[in-house]
Amino acid sequence: MQAMTDNYGNPSALHSNGVRAKQLLEQSRQKVAAVLGALPEEVLFSPSGTIANNTAVIAAVNMRRRRGSRIVTRYFVSAYRQKICADSARLDAHFAERLNCVHRQENGLFSGTENMPAIAGFGAACEVLPDPLTSQREMKKLRRRLLTKLSKIPTILINSPNDALPNIINMSILGMPSQVLVNFFSERGICISAGSACKKGHRSEVLTQLGYTPIRIDSAIRVSLSRYTTEEDIDRFVEVAIEASNKLRYREF
Asked: Is 198 an active-site residue?
């Protein structure tokens, strides 16, 4: 709110509102850097996720240009990132933003004026973020609980590898289309997705490359855990998954 009510100036401007906005910008940069274990000058706020991807890839390619002219890609990433491979980190603040001005931001790297509400919100979120390692340990416990219970249901197959990140599980409830499952769970107060947002309406290329059958892919859903997820949430999800399994007409896959 501070960026929208008090420090709403252009951080590149020299007047008092601009100076205060610039201070807020740099404070936010420091907060994000602290969470990442990075230096503040290593953190850049880009206008969008796509621009962040492009910047990371182009920078990585330019740094390694002497090593060769071939870029290795892989399928086990989101639709956009299937085109790229880099060791730079990209974080999403997940704020809506559009920058169409000719002004330049972040040392002239990006066009437009900094989206201060989004940047300040990103910094504030990082400031209250709990210890990531502790949160990850808790999510791993919840993941094990969920997978153990799901393994007892014959019509459910887990598509995620064992070493996947603990907060995302891709699974198939055989015989029921993904979107039907999304609606089924939603009617019972549980929000899941049929896949990544950038692949909406399309069959997962990742699951296809893993060699899964079309029916298994078309029954796939993605379940997300968070630090707010409880054991009771896990048990409730399993109850609904069993209910969904009992409603389908089982076929051989």
From this structure: yes
